Amino acid sequence: GQIVYSIAEETERGASVGNIAKDLGIDAATLSARKFRMITGSSKQYFNINASTGALSVNEPIDREQLCELKSVCLLNYELVLENPLELYRMEFKVLDINDNSPSFPLSEYHISVPEFLSPGARFTLPNAQDLDEGANSVQNYTLSPEEYFHLEMQIRGDGSKYPELVLKKALDREQQATHRLVLTAKDGGDPPKSGDVPVIVTVLDTNDNAPEFEHSVYRASILENSPSGTLVVQVHATDLDEGPNGEVRYSFSNTTSADLQRMFLIHPHTGEVTVNGVLAVQRPLLEMLIEARDNGAFGMSSTAKLLVEITDVNNHGPEITITSLSSPVPEDAVPGTVIALLSILDKDPGENGKVTCQVPDSLPFQLKPSLQNYYSLVTSELLDRELISEYNITITATDLGSPPITTQKTVWVQISDVNDNPPVFSADAFDVFVEENNPLGAFIYQVSASDPDIGENGQVSYTLRNSTVAGSALTSFLSVNLANGSIYAKRAFDFEQLRSFYFQVEAKDNGSPALSAAITVNVYISDQNDNAPSILYPVSQNGSVAVEVVPRLADEDYLVTKVVADDEDNAENAWLSYHLVHSSDSTLFQLSPHTGELRTTRSMRSTDFLKHKVVVVVRDHGDPPLSSTVTVGILLADTLPQALPDFDDSGEPPPLLNATNIYLIISLACVSFIFAAFLLSLAVVRL
């Protein structure tokens, strides 16, 4: 959008100009949040915007004549930039002229020499007044102080411009009055009008009665703006009908021609050739100068002609690229068409030389779109992926249409910010873990690890156990996981005999918003340890008694007495059992198979053999270290099963002479005997 305001120059500071929020249809409350900025090419900030109300006011009074010099229309261009979203508005301020400058003359006084013999009607050019105001506020008319011999007339040049001339009303007599003092007054058309005066001193001469006359009242020329010093612009020519020194003409710039133009051009005093002197450092396409032709008479006469020089542009300015606004970093999920930056591309050359084309490399996911005049928006053309490319150096190339064209480049650095668009990733779909049973509490089991190509919070991974049950109990009663590094620890000791394997899932979740996650299955296999001794299944002793086997009294050799049967809850070699005979009341009578546990006789029974025998069998596994269990078997030699089984505590051998009961009886008897002897001894001593 674009909006135009008009404001009079020299408006005081703080004066209201308008309300930018209301005029543009913007909510004034959002101006501050949207980081509004006023951008201008001027060195001064002439206007302010109230961030709360949107009121536009004067920040500094404007001097139109200082700002725009002699331009007929004085404009100030501003751009209002708003962010979130990015918007650009153009504001144009038309500075209206007020009558704040009085007409003035270049010199403090002017001298005119008039031959006394001139007839009434002779004309003399008077100086033009200058007024920095424009239009009606500029110089409108001239007046001359009342004078008997002179009056004022206005003349029009070929280009329509007016200038004052002093006209002789009656013949002069130098002998009666050699000098006439006049006052020339210039008035503008302001309300109220302003004026400026300059003394005009007329000296009466009695020689040289013809002034030089130019061939043309207006000379026109055209040169290139890069013309070197010494280039001929135009040659003016004036003639003087007088003879001798009074007819010799010298050329110069009029005092009303600005000093800058007099330094920029030279005029040859004799030939009238106007040439370039130095660099044509002007922005105006048309330059106006007044050339004076004066003769060499004792009292030189002069006339003026106007020189209009048109400066033809050449392509000597390259495009200027200005970054007005830049949004960096850009989120990687930005949709195509998102505005990244606002660029101003301007070429100071006029016409085709100032027209510009611009582009960015086709290989980049960005493009330029024209916005307002001389403005372009840098937008995304494709989806971005920070994980592939995290930043871009975008080279903007601007080329004008001059011949030859001039190219300018500017590089914009744009960073891509991360969004949470990647879930954590494990290196495999499942892991197998082997854990020995009887592990200590808190034992390290395994460490899972997931990677996330995002950065910051979006790439920070935390680990949790997914809810599940193991053997009817909650998984969390078995395991725990470190939230930060994925280390898994045991919260209880595993028992291979109760639980041989199970599986669970670990979830890896990033800290993005919304969070993304992935899960992995961990298969846990419990490794067996030799923690169970063999269990004797047969023969079985009850209440601590010895298991009894009955063998025929005269059994043959290799007779199967019994078979020891055992089981081990462990696995593999920890459950491989071997049988060993560690004690026998008769070592020559029985033998035990180490692999089957069969107890057999080594010879035929004899009538002289004891009727009762006792053997001790050890069952041992192959663990490391090995564990074992023992069983005691009582063997009774009998042809029939007795009604009551004998006691095998004596192991089939004679009982010992000293047992605990006998020892107690002996001690008691000894004590009684000792006391009785002590009594008899005491009695004998008393009698003696």
TrEMBL record:
Protein location: Cell membrane
GO biological process: homophilic cell adhesion via plasma membrane adhesion molecules
Organism superkingdom: Eukaryota
Keywords: Calcium, Cell adhesion, Cell membrane, Glycoprotein, Membrane, Repeat, Signal, Transmembrane, Transmembrane helix
Gene Ontology molecular function: calcium ion binding
Membrane topology label: Single-pass type I membrane protein
Coiled-coil segments: none
Domain Cadherin: 6-105, 106-214, 215-321, 322-426, 427-536, 561-648
Keyword presence, Transmembrane helix: yes
InterPro entries xref list: Cadherin-like_dom, Cadherin-like_sf, Cadherin_CS, Cadherin_N, Protocadherin/Cadherin-CA
GO cellular component: plasma membrane
Alphabetical list of Pfam families matching this protein: Cadherin (PF00028), Cadherin_2 (PF08266)
Signal peptide from the UniProt entry: none
Segments traversing the membrane: 663-686
Function noted in UniProt: Potential calcium-dependent cell-adhesion protein. May be involved in the establishment and maintenance of specific neuronal connections in the brain.
UniProt name for this protein: PCDC1 protein
Native species: Neodrepanis coruscans (wattled asity)
